[in-house]
Amino acid sequence: MHPSKYDAFIDQLVATNTKEELNQLISANNSLLIPQLEERVLERIQANDLPADILPWITSLITRQLASQWLTLADEQYEAFLEQNKSWMLSDTAYQFLIDMAQHYTNDAEHIEHRIILLIDFAFQTYFSLENKQNRDRLLLGAIKLFSTEWLRKNFPKEWANFKQEIGIAYMRSKEGNRAQNVEAAIKAYQQALTLRTRHVMPIECALTQLLIGLAYQERIEGDRAQNIEAAVESFQQALIVFTQQAWPDKWAIIQFNLGDVYRKSIHGDRAQNLEMAIKSYQRALTVFTQQTEPYDWADIQQGLALAYQGRIEGDRAQNMEAAIEVYQQALTVFTRQTWPDKWADIQNNLGIAYQERIEGDRAQNLEKALESYQRAMIISARPDKWADTQNNLGIVYQNRIKGDRATNIELAIEAYQQALTVFSQQTWPDKWARTQNNLGSANLVRIRGGRAQNLEAAIEAFQLALIVRTQQSMSFEWANTQHNLGLAYSFRIQGDRAQNLEEAIEAYQQALTQFTQQAWPYDWATTQNTLGLAYFFRIRGDRAHNLETAIIAFQHALKVHTQQIWPVEWAGTQQNLGSAYSERIEGDRAQNVEMAIEAYQQALTVRSQQAMPYAWAETQHNLGNANRNRIHGDQAQNLEAAIQAYQLALVVRTQQTMPIEWATTQYVLGFTYQNRTKGDRAQNVEMAIEAYQQALTIFTPDLLPIQCFETSHLLGELFFQESQWTAARQALELAHQAAEHQRQQQYTYSRHLLAQQTANMYAYLVDICLNLGDKQAALDYALAAKGRSDAERLGAAQPLNQLVAQNPTMANYYQHIRQLQQKLEQLSIQLRSYSKPVAHNQRLDENDERQFRAQTIQQIIQTRLALRQALEELNFRFPLITSVQYTRSLTAANLIRLANDLEATLVQYFQCYRGWVAFIVTAHQVYDCVRLPETLQTILEEQVDTDAVLSSYQSKFPLKERLYFKSLYQRLIAPLEDFLPEKGQLFIAPDGILKRIPFGALWKHTSNNRLIDRFTFSVVPSMSFLFTLFQQAQTSEVTPLPPSDYLLSVVYPGDDPLLKTYLTEVYPESVAIAQHFIQVEWLHDEKAQPDRLIELCQQHAYSAIHFGCHGQFDNFFPEHSCLLLNGQLTVQQIVNRLRLQRSPLVTLGACQTGMTESTTGGDQTGLSQALFMAGAKTVLASLWSVNDESTRVLFEHFYRKRAEFGVSEAEALQYAQQQVRQYPEWQDAYYWAAYQIVGLPV
Question: Are 794 and 749 in contact (CB under 8 A)?
């Protein structure tokens, strides 16, 4: 540039005064280049040599002059003029020039039309030739601004429509900006073109635009994908009306090719039919495009045809895959690495997918070929998205690879997915980003290295990320696929609540099935049905029988598609699952269910061979053994032989070195089968059973696998017991005891209640064994360990946990730490059990990796269990009364001796061991002993107490039978203890099982007229652990109970109708008489005696005593439904969950059967009195049977008067009251007075 030349021109422009002078000056200097002129003006403005507003004025002058020249130039000069001013045309000034031209020079329409056509052509040639992408986009935007004017559409409709089509093409080719928005702009431009390009006016142009709009809808990102594909099909079909095979063979073939692509990708309608239409469309296109005439198009269509064969549903699956591989290889004869590297890489990528899915040939070799294809594709990496696509596929093949180390392969897969995600972001490639996130989740789902729990959490996170893009509306198939994978992750999840995880899994599978239908996506539908069946099989919530029925239906659905011929591996897996469901089925005939399970397992074994699928084969053999062991039909001895044979076959693969936990599991059931075997020598069978159990216990240790250890050592102990090998039996059962204690630490309070039931039989054996060995102290220790610790732990539930946390924030930290350790132990246990299981395609992790991971996990379990034990001890030391959040240690004989001494009482614990009843006696003088009770005791209990005959014997019309009954029980329950019992004093009795129904105070000697109540003041307690906890709370509580006669809550509801015989007329005078002994009384009578009002009052006030005068009801079958009949039912559940009694009051129940409880096999009890203790009561006075209304009134009047006037304990007050009732001749029989017992700790 020569500044002096431009400066002179600028100075002359500024100095001119008339329009004529300006025009002459501009014409004389038309050789000056506009951009350089503008640049020089800007320089002088910045140097303050020219005013800032002069530039637009000069530009406008130059634009008008150039417009005049542009119109008058000859055609041969026109292109030179545009070429000379190309850089200027990229400026905003040029766009204004073009617009000015279009608006001001309209008088010569023909000349203007000719010029506009030339200008449009030049603009697009310039657009596609420019290397600077920013300049290209500026030119594109400028052209849109110019040629979108209504003036151009009106005056030059053909050119305007041509431009709209060209602008659509430009948008589709553009690599700049947002891809989704570019496609939307292209579709809009094509649709605008079609407003003028109609089939009747411009048929060929219309068909061409329809073809282009179909291609755009194929790539559309926004909107519903199914609708986009349908729109593409419609556009292609419109184009085919004009572009026929005869008239336009090339374009007809192009449309057929694209129709094939659209049908192949379609998710609307029948999937199988769509793929068939795609194949036909590709084949039609190939009738025109041959390898000789159009090699590029021919090879491109071959690639689409191969993809259609890959996804084909109809026909033989294996043959379809072979056809796909053959077609890919044909395409590669044209698309070579040298001639078409990008296409060559694309086909290598797709060929890898085909080999990965291939059925014929060796599976491992097919995957290696897939790996080679992907690696070849990676050589060509010009396009980042193609490179990332191949990385994604490479991840898939590594994830499924058979050769090499399994753990390493999965790590390589994860690395490949992560590499792909460096290119695919949610913003730029949302679909591919979501696909890769889904695959990354799948890899973490089966990942071996790293923590199993953490891997599953990573999988869930990846699937949830994928679902941000994969929505049901826009990507229904992909959405369903990810929902299915999310279901798998929740099914396997270790963290969180197991029951809730399974619910999440079921929900995800059901969501997937809203899109996976049998018709559209049969394989995916069947796969999801199978996994849904497994989720229902393992489901915790809901009815177990219903869950199993749902599982069976799902497995049967899966087998409609997963046939042995087409999907043999999947078919065998579903048969295995179906067998498991039938094995545990509750509905239907049990014998028939087992037969169907055996048939399913045998079907599975036709595919699951030892050679091809050794781990799956061993699993099915193990399950077949279980089914034969449980078989009802056929010869039982032969069934057990078949079971043994199946277990022994399973152990060929399940070895201690390779699959230790599965090996131990099979050893366990093999031992159980030998224990029950009828064929062969009995002694030899016992030896083989013992050996199998002992082998299992080398893996099942108390620290690592407490549940399995307990079950195995328990059975081993029973076997030794049956063989009278007392020492060996004790060793085995003590190991079971250790395992139970470990599991008890690991469980939450509600789970310990179930554990108490499971261990009851073990303690029955242990007590018997210890007595046989003469170790009475150990026998007592185990008897105490067996009884009622869960009840004692639940005493702490008198306050909700949130209240405990609010009152004890320090305790909350301890509690949360313990819960975390318990959860970690559970997760580590699951992780340990998972190591030797196959993870995919019958493959397992490398033995060295497995050994290393198992050792690490074992060390973590040991460290975590130690930390848990220390945390529990710390919590017990700092918060001894809060038993609902801690592990209660087993009460020992030493504890019991101290308790008897502190209470100055005699303690009697009855216990039913394996071979009869025993009683343990501990006195205040630190003397304890154990006495075996007469063998005839159990007969009497079974014949009379267990059949409720005792209730009729209590009635006054059977006095003789009543006396004989109680004398008989005295001889068997009390007489054997006489040598250890004092003459009188306080007696605490902890009856076991059915003994809880016996009114001990009514028992009497046959040589005396005195009842036991005349000799002792006694209380009944659910267990000695329960009594010990009550005593500890009373001694260390910071809350002082109210004085005995301070404040009474009187609750009276005699019934609904005074005319009925059941109406309790005596409860009113009874309540008045009781109230006389209290300073303050709260009356809750008649219609006011509502459960909600009672609960509210107890939350607001502390009472010395609460007395109920009403009916009670005990439910033998569902004791938690037992209730007090107020103005509405006050049930056990309401008392436990809502009632909170402050400051440990006395509760007296003038109602029927309020002292009845239902005992579990673990010694824990459920009933009204037990519920009141859990609500916060210290002592409860309750009845064992339906009581007489009038004698009850007299009893309570004497009870409260004695307690108030003489300050005696509740036990002494009851002793006195019962003696007073017996003074009445008509009430001497036990029916009238013996029903009532003090339960708990009388003070």
Answer: yes
Three-state secondary structure readout of 281-304: HHHHHCCCCCCCCCHHHHHHHHHH
Residue 1125, strand partner residues:
1111, 1129
* Widest pairwise Cα distance in the chain: 151
DSSP string, 992-1023: -GGGGGS-GGG-B-TT-S-BHHHHEEEEE-S-
pLDDT at 800: 46
Q: How many Cα atoms within 13 Å fall on the side-chain side of residue 525?
A: 15
Q: In whole angstroms, give the CA distance from residue 150 to residue 158.
A: 13
First to last CA, the chain: 114
- pLDDT at position 507 is 97
What confidence tens digit (pLDDT) does each residue in 1050-1066 have?
999 998 888 888 888 88
463: nearest Cα among 503, 494, 425, 490: 490
Q: Tell me: pLDDT of 1170 over 90.
A: no
Q: Tell me: the pLDDT tens digits for 1079-1138?
A: 999 999 999 999 999 999 998 999 999 999 988 887 777 777 788 999 999 988 888 878
Name the residue with tokens 């559940």.
1133
| 948-to-10, 972, 1189 alpha-carbon distances in Å | 123, 19, 21
Nearest to 992 by CA among 955, 929, 949, 937: 937
Domain boundaries, the chain: 608-693, 700-779, 799-873, 893-1020, 1037-1240
More confident residue, 489 or 47: 489
**pLDDT in the model for residue 842:** 42
CB 345 within 8 A of CB 379: yes
Tokens standing for 577? 């699952």
Q: What is the pLDDT of residue 1162?
A: 40
pLDDT value, residue 947? 45
State which amino acid sits at residue 322.
E
CA angle 969, 973, 975 (to 5 degrees): 100
* Cα 1023 from Cα 789, distance rounded (Å): 8
* Residue matched to tokens 């039309």: 113
What type of residue is 873? E
What is the fold of 1037-1240? Rossmann fold (3.40.50)
Where does 31-74 have alpha helices with state H?
34-46, 54-72
Residue among 537, 535, 478, 541 at smallest CA distance from 512: 478
Q: Which residues contact 517 (CB under 8 A, 6 or more apart)?
A: 525
Contact predicate 947/956, CB 8 Å: no
State residue 145's pLDDT score.
53
603-612: string of b/e by CB count within 10 Å (b at 16+)? bbbebbeeee
pLDDT tens by residue, 113-126: 555 555 555 555 55
Checking if the pLDDT of 523 tops 70, the result is: yes
Whether the CB-CB separation of 472 and 515 falls below 8 Å is answered with yes
b (16+ CB within 10 A) / e for 272-300: bebbbbbbebbebbbebbebeebbebbbb
Q: Over the stretch 1201-1223, which tens digit does the pLDDT of each residue have?
A: 999 999 899 999 999 999 999 99
Token pair 């339960």 is found at 1239
Instruction: Tell me which long-range contacts 48-54 makes (C-beta under 8 A, separation of at least 24).
Output: 50/10, 50/14, 54/14
Residue 1015: band (very low, low, confident or very high) from pLDDT cuts 50, 70, 90: very high
pLDDT bracket for residue 752 (50, 70, 90): very low
pLDDT higher than threshold 70 for residue 1157: no
Q: Which residue has the tokens 């099942």?
A: 700
